[in-house]
Automatic annotation (TrEMBL):
It comes from the Bacteria. Gene3D superfamilies: VSR Endonuclease. It comes from Hymenobacter amundsenii. This is Cytosine methyltransferase. GO terms for molecular function: methyltransferase activity. It holds the Pfam family DUF559. InterPro entries: DUF559 (IPR007569), Endonuclease_DUF559_bact (IPR047216), Restrct_endonuc-II-like (IPR011335). GO terms for biological process: methylation. Residues 14-119 form the DUF559 domain. CDD domains: Endonuclease_DUF559 (cd01038). Keywords: Methyltransferase, Transferase.
Length: 132
């Protein structure tokens, strides 16, 4: 890392918060993690509850610079939506791609969510997939 670059990933002062979040995944996050861990999806490594600057993202694939977010009910009011917009803009400014899915969509069609994540590996233009 260059001397002038600020460290933005997995900040030390957020270590305890990462641990807490990893131990308290939502049911949808825990289920998705079973598909992503140990490089099972497209042979890509994912990290769960990974910090980028002031944010902790649900899942991060370093090789693809891809953030995967599973959103529950708290994301669908005006305040939650505004926070998501700010967060996505920040992450994209860091050179990351962000795709979001609703928890209910994961439960209804997990294979579609996994296919969309895998498709993002091939299509580097995929960014900020909106919630349906």
């Amino acid at each position: 890392m260059a001397e002038h670059e600020e460290r933005k990933h997995n900040l030390v002062h957020k270590k305890e918060q990462h641990r807490e979040l990893r131990n308290c995944l939502t049911p949808a996050e825990a289920s998705l993690w079973t598909y992503l861990q140990r490089s099972q999806l497209g042979r890509r490594k994912f990290r769960r509850q990974h910090s980028v600057g002031p944010y902790i993202v649900d899942f991060y694939c370093p090789a693809e610079k891809l953030v995967v977010e599973l959103d529950g009910a708290g994301h669908y009011d005006a305040v939650g939506n505004a926070r998501d917009v700010d967060r996505t803009q920040y992450l994209e400014a860091q050179g990351l791609r962000v795709i979001r899915f609703e928890n209910k969509d994961f439960w209804s069609h997990p294979e579609s969510i996994l296919a969309a994540i895998e498709a993002a590996f091939l299509n580097t233009n995929v960014t900020n997939q909106t919630k349906n």
